[in-house]
Each structure stands twice: as structure tokens, then as C-alpha cells.
């Protein structure tokens, strides 16, 4: 979800690899071991949780997580928990990375020391405060000075144990005094509107003077401060929970008698010393945080046109897209935005065909064709993920679900067999699962997306033309992608492909590993099957599949998905599952508050309907056809005093739903919007608040059928598979070119060197693929000019925004380190310019 600013959109996203923890403190009991899991939090809001690794003080996770960040945040935090069956899980320690520090660790494996978690340091949110110092003349004619402190509102307070009932205490503190006052408690909201004013006497009465300024002693003011503490009113016996504080010295009122600003809440400074961080162990993480500032489409026209014509450049190694793959440190970071942009513009097949043909011409051994991590391989991988995800779900979903639910033992390694298990029975169980998966794959050719089939056709033709003496190369060129890089990884780790909602248990994971190995070997069509396995027990098991019918089925499948004009391009009739999970819905027609209003239900979205049931597998309690969804929008928190709510608007009424966190709410809103985007009766306006007590809370209209009062947010394309923001992808590519500008300039030098010097190639230039130095140099010159023009636009935008930004505004509260960093950068830029 983009944050709209003047003239551009801002997107935030984070990709995290949670590696492992080590040297965790032992459990204070006879067992010593712990059952640990790790959570990812935006400030205090949990957005992801790993599997539980049992009985270990050095748990390995190896899990990846990606999300679009729909709101501002200050810290990206990781909490390590020890599961407790009988009590609340205990926190071992945490890693908290400030937002402004994330670039330091960009895409680098880093060990972070775990820190102790102190309730006084777990804060988030901001406070809007106003201070005003006034002269007051008493009845006796003397003057004293009073301070009016107005607590206006708070934003983004944390949810504590599922609820937030905040209140504030306001204290005027000094060396010899401490006077405290308290606001009312605001129920069920983490964005409370207080708007309460408290008065404090600052100075003793003195002789009245007609001076225009306040007559008080400067040293007294320096010693006084206003302290605002935020608390969550709790019914627990442990007392109210601390949410954060801020301290404002009264010297801010020296130049003016009033001060109004937003402040970030800060941890409480209680003077205690935390234990050494190395007592708690450490956590290995790889974090990639990106923040894209996307201008309107016309800004990107020169760079975008240069990229989109890459397939037509001769040779293709001189094209802008190929050059991006040459200069990036990893092919993957170039392939992701490239494939998305080219797929969005309908140019991905032409470009992949061109670079695949060039790669095949450089390949000497047909057995190694497309086996490296080249730009070709990475672009095809990304295209399959984008265009083929629903095909993958339709093909593998039922078989994976059967394996996960059956819990049959399939261990065929004699060393790993448990007591009471039979090797022959296990082999038969595994054979049945492999047969089910194999049949699902080899009969799915008619459903393979057209764009994937067109790419496979070009791979097959290029390989067969290059290696005319090898009759199997036309199959291996395609199977190396569809089996090795598409189906096998999805079977091995179904949760990464949304085939399962969570990690599978160890026994099921082992079964999926054995199935994946077998399917991968079946699809490879290698001549010596037994030699494909390192383990003797796998070679023995594979004897079940030495029949010719398996090889014939694979070849027929590969022929079907790589033959031009092979089938009727009819859409798949069976429903495609898009998303499912538990959320909380509000019953219609009930009172505003009360537990009975809200019920936990299992929601399920397909391309045909949106349903919910009591639990997974139960018959639907309600079914909404996709064509009946008129709008999907966020619901203002004020409606039910609940966070992360959205509404699905139907012809008769709206269904109000609460997601578990902000990331999940965004995902549901996005996918529901996409799938219903082409509905003819979609609304252009909606009500951002609920209809309660006989009127709409937003516009106060009394009729429940009154037209909306707010324009609907911009929709997204209905084609979910190809939902790509072309401008955002071009911005990503621009950022990559800017990052690797030194390599672009080095490549220019290499082109010049090759053009004028026919001798041995210099070692520093040998890493670049340059088939035509003159054509490559021409493209490089255009790229550097286009990137430079965009950088000037970004620099001008930063300067303009910096001039307009006020420190202490809601966008940049006092205590915002990101803004302070921006101030330093602008200062350095100005100095450099001078």
C-alpha cells in the first residue's frame, strides 16, 4: 500500500531471512533445552512467526518472510520466545533495529546480540501536546504565571494483551516539587482523543509589572519539566501497563509563550543497568528493506522505453535489460523487477527468448544447459512465480493436503526407522504419494499458463537447434525449469508457495522431501536413474518407477506445455483457491458493543466466491459471489474501537471483518479488490464508518441505503497473476542502476578498451559480456543519462520537501531520527554544493 505524498507514491517493503540462534541460555530445569520460535514485529505489532524448534539452545530456522509495509514504523524487531505449555510463553530476548539503521545491514548476513526485554522500553506511538504559559493577575493585584498543558491526542499506541484502554498522567516536576494530574481512560482504542487541559502554577506571585514578557527567573525554568506518561488501564492484579513517556523542559517556552508539537513516546529512564547482551545469545538475520519513491509515469518514459526494447537489440547483450544483469551483484535482484516490468508490458517472452538463445549458444555441454544462476534462469523463475502460482495451487494443492493430513509414515532410510515401523509398508505409502503427485503434474499440461508455455517453446527450439545430435535436449531444457525450479521446490517447502498456511511437522516434512527428490529425478529423464541418488535407499526405492510409462508420461507432458498452438486456450472451470484463514466478523443487526457481536470464522476466497464457515472444512455459513462485491475498503477504527478492520460492501449490506494485523488486512483488501475489480456495479463512493444506532457515523445520514460520502480507493487490475505496478518496477531498476553506477562506468571503459585494443582482455573487464562494444557503449551512454536525469528529479524533490517539512509535525514528530538524519544529509549536500 503506497503512502501518497505530493507528486509521488512511497512504497515500503521488507524481505527477511531468519537464519538461526546460538548460545541461548539454558532452561532453569533438569532438561536445560528450550522450544524456541521467533516473531517479526513492526514496533510492537507481530506480523510473522516462525516454526517452533524443539529441544535446542541453537535453533535453526532458515525461514524467509516478505511483506509490504502499510504504515510508518520506528523499529523492526525480532523476539525470541520459549514455548511454555502451561503458562504464557516467555521472552528470551529481542533484536530491535531502528528504521534509519536498516540500510547498514542491507542484504548481509549479520549476527545480532539478543537484548533483554524490559517492559519500560517496549514503547510505540506518538502524542500531540500543547503548552501555554500565561500571566494571571490575582484579586490582590499581584502577578503569577500558570502553565496550561493540553493533551490533544495519541496515535499508534500498542495493543497490550489484545486490548488498549489508555490514559495519560501529566506531571510538572522540578528539584523541589512534583504535581501530577490524570486524564480520563479511553476505552478500546489505540488512537485516543483526549483533548484535556491541565493547569499548573509555575512561579510564585510577584509584584505586577507591565512588561510584555514574562518575569520569572531563568534558572527556575531550566529546572522544571513537563512529563507525560501513557498507561494502559488493566484489570489484572499486576497493575496498569506502561506505554511510554515524554519529557519536555519548560525552556522551550523562552522565546514564545506557547508550544504545540507531536512527540514520539520514549522508553522510561529508570536508571537501571541491563545485563550484558552476550548473556542471552545471538540471532543471525538477513534484512532487505526498500523504500521506493515513485513519480508519475511520464518521469520514467525514457528509461522504461530503453528497457522494453531490449528484446529487439542486436546483440541482446548490448540491451539495457541485459546490462542490468551484468552490473548487479546478484542476478536475482536484477531479474525480479525486470521480469515484472516485462511481464506487465507483454515483452517478457520476447526478451527471455533472446537471452536464452544467446546463453544456449555459449553452452558447450547439453547436460549443463540452463543449470547455472544466469539472468535467463532467474527471469524465468520469477515469471513462473508470477504467472504460474495459481496453476501450481490447482495442480499440487489436493495432493499436498492429502500428505499433510494423512500423517502416514514414509521413512525408507533403515537407519531412521522408528520402533514398530515396517520398511515395506513405508515404501508403499511413499509410492502412493509419489504416484498421486506425479499423476497430478503430468495431467495438468492443458492448464499451464500461456506465457509459461510460450517461454518453454522458445527454450525447446533454441536447445534443439544448438544440440541437434542430442534427441533429449529439447526435453531437459524445459524439465530443468518446470520440474527442478517449479514443482520440486513447491513440494519441498509448500508454505513458501502458500500451499500450506504453516510449516509442516517433522514427519510430514521428511515425506515431502522424499517425494520432491523422486519427482525431480522422474522429471529429469536422466539415463542412469540410480546414479542420480547419493543414498542407496533412494536408488532402491526408485526401482518402482523404472517402467517406461513414467518416462512417456513426462515426455508427453513436456511436449504439451512446450508446443505452439497445442490447446484450446479455455480458462479452467474449477474454482481456484486464492486465500484463506481465520478472521473475526461482526454479526449484522446487533448492538454496537458486546462480545456476541464478533465471532471468529474461517474465511475462504476463490475466483468464484467469498465464504466463511465456523472452522476449516465445515459447510459455509455465508457465501458471497464475487460479482456481488461492490467495494472493499478499510473501516475507520472509531466504528467499533477495533484495529485492522475492513468492509466488504454488498448490494444489501456491508460485511465488517477484523484481520489479525495490518499486513494481513492489507493482503485481504488487495486480493478482494483485485478479484472483484471488473464487476460492472462496483461503487465509486463508500461510507468509511459503520451504520450504527440509526445513522452512518461518517456523514450522519440516517438512511442505511444512503450513497457513500467518500470516493473509493483506486482499484487494481482484475488479472491477479499479472498485477504489476510498472512505474514502481522502473523505479526499482533505476535504484539498482544508481547503486551500481561505478560498474556502469567501468563497463563503458571496457567497451572503449575493446574497440581500440585487439590484444588480450584486461582482467578487470573480463567479468562483462560484451559482444558488440560500439552498440553496448551507445546503450550505456543512454542509461547513464537517463539515470542521471531521474536522480536530479529525486534530489530536487528531497530539497523541496525538506524546505516544507516542520520538525514536530505529525509526519515528523520530535524524536524522529529519520528526519534528523535527513537534516544532516541536506546540510552535507549544501556544504558540498558550496
UniProtKB/TrEMBL annotation:
All residue ranges annotated as the C2 domain in the record: 1-112, 123-263
Bias-annotated ranges (Polar residues): 818-834
InterPro entries in the record: C2_dom, C2_domain_sf, PH-like_dom_sf, PH_domain, Ras_GTPase, RASA3_PH, RasGAP_CS, RasGAP_dom
Domain PH residue range list: 576-677
One of the Pfam families matching this protein, by short name: PH
Gene Ontology cellular-component annotations: cytoplasmic side of plasma membrane
Entry's Gene Ontology BP terms: intracellular signal transduction; negative regulation of Ras protein signal transduction; platelet activation
Domain Ras-GAP, chain residue ranges per copy: 330-524
GO MF term list: calcium channel regulator activity; GTPase activator activity; zinc ion binding
Region of interest (Disordered), ranges: 801-834
Keyword Nuclease applies: no
Protein name, per record: Ras GTPase-activating protein 3
Organism: Microcebus murinus (Gray mouse lemur)
Gene symbol of the encoding locus: RASA3
